[in-house]
Design a protein that fits this description.
Elements lengths: L3 H8 L4 H14 L2 E2 L2 E2 L3 H5 L23 E2 L11 E2 H13 L8 H10 L10 H18 L4 H15 L9 H14 L9 H24 L3 H21 L2 H18 L26 H7 L1
Antiparallel strand pairs: 1-2, 3-4
Helix pairs in contact: 1-2, 4-5, 4-6, 6-7, 7-8, 8-9, 9-10, 9-12, 10-11
Length: about 300
C-alpha cells in the first residue's frame, strides 16, 4: 500500500524529490502496513510482561549460591532486584575504592551497604540488617587494625537495628552493639583536643539516642523511664559541646518518652523520638569525619 502512490505519481511525471516527500508523509500517516499495526519505538524496546526479573549486577536470574533475588528499597517495576552475594561484592569493591573521595571518605565507604544505588534510598527490613552484618564482617576481615572503621560499621548496624519502630525482637542485639561502641570510644576520651571531644560527643549522642528509642520500644513504664534517662544525657551532652539543634531534638524526644511514662500516649502515638546524631529520624548516622566539619 505504501508504494502505490509512488507508481501513480511516477506515471504523472511528478519530480522525484516531490515523489519521495509524498511517499514519506504517506508512510508516516498510514496506521497499518499490510494489515498489521505499525510498531512504535516504545513498543520495540518495552520488555515483555512475562519476562523474568534479573539481578541488575550479574544480569542473571539464578545465582550459583542458590540465593534468590532480593529487593527491599524504593525501586519499582523490574529495577533494583539483586542477589545478596552480588550486592556484597559490589559494595566491597566500592568501599575499597572510596579513598578517591577524600572529602567524604567514610560516608562513601559505608554508602553502598546502606543505600540502593538505583533509587538512592535506604535498604529496609531483613535485607538492611543482613547487609549491615556483611559490612561489619567485611571491615573486621579487611581492616582488622582500623578501629575507627569497625566502630563506624557498628554504628551502621545499630542504626539499622533501631530504625524499625515496630521491630521488638532485636533489642538485645542492639544493646550489645551499643555496648561495643561505647567501650571502643573510651580510648578517644583520653585525647584532649576539641575535635576529639566533639567526635566522642557525636558518637555517644547517636548511641544513647538509639538506646533511648530501643528502651521506649519495650512498651513498658520502666522502658519509658530508661528512655527518658538516655535522652536527658543527650540533652546535657549536646549543651556541653554547643549542639543547639541536638539539644532541641533531645528535649523533644524526652517529652515523648515522658508522655509514655505518664500514660499519655496521645503524643507518642503520632510521633517518634529522634534517633541518632543526625537529628532527623530518617537519616543514617553521618560519619564523624564529615559531621565535625558541619559543626
Amino acid at each position: 500500500m505504501v508504494y502505490a502512490p509512488i507508481i501513480i505519481i511516477t506515471l504523472l511525471n511528478v519530480p522525484i524529490i516531490i515523489t519521495l516527500l509524498i511517499t514519506i508523509i504517506v508512510a508516516t500517516l498510514l496506521p497499518h502496513v499490510d494489515g498489521k499495526k505499525r510498531p512504535t519505538d516504545a513498543a520495540a524496546v518495552a520488555p515483555s510482561s512475562d519476562e523474568e526479573d534479573t539481578c541488575w549486577l550479574c544480569l542473571d536470574v539464578k545465582h550459583e549460591s542458590g540465593q534468590p533475588l532480593r529487593r527491599d528499597c524504593s525501586c519499582r517495576g523490574g529495577s533494583g532486584f539483586a542477589h545478596l552475594p552480588c550486592v556484597v561484592e559490589y559494595a566491597g569493591k566500592w568501599s575499597q575504592q572510596s579513598h578517591r573521595h577524600r572529602a567524604d571518605y567514610m560516608n562513601k565507604f559505608i554508602e553502598p551497604w546502606l543505600d540502593c544505588p538505583n533509587c538512592h534510598q535506604h535498604y529496609r527490613n531483613e535485607l538492611a540488617l543482613e547487609l549491615a552484618n556483611e559490612l561489619l564482617s567485611f571491615v573486621e576481615k579487611q581492616y582488622p587494625d582500623h578501629e575507627w572503621k569497625i566502630r563506624e560499621a557498628l554504628r551502621c548496624k545499630l542504626f539499622v537495628l533501631s530504625s524499625d519502630w515496630t521491630q521488638l525482637e532485636r533489642r538485645e542485639e542492639a544493646k550489645e552493639v551499643a555496648g561495643r561502641i561505647l567501650s571502643m570510644i573510651e580510648k578517644m576520651k583520653m585525647e584532649k583536643s576539641s575535635a576529639a571531644k566533639k567526635n566522642v560527643a557525636i558518637i555517644e549522642l547517636h548511641t544513647f539516642s538509639c538506646l533511648g528509642l530501643i528502651a521506649l520500644k519495650e512498651g513498658t513504664k520502666e522502658g519509658a523511664k530508661t528512655s527518658m534517662e538516655y535522652y536527658e544525657k543527650c540533652f546535657h551532652m549536646s549543651k556541653a559541646v554547643g549542639f543547639t539543634k541536638r539539644m532541641a531534638s533531645a528535649e523533644r524526644s524526652f517529652a515523648i518518652a515522658k508522655c509514655f511514662y505518664e500514660g499519655d500516649s496521645s503524643l507518642g502515638a503520632h510521633q517518634k523520638p529522634d534517633r541518632g546524631a543526625d537529628h532527623e529520624l530518617t537519616k543514617r548516622p553521618v560519619s564523624i569525619l564529615q559531621d565535625t566539619k558541619q559543626r
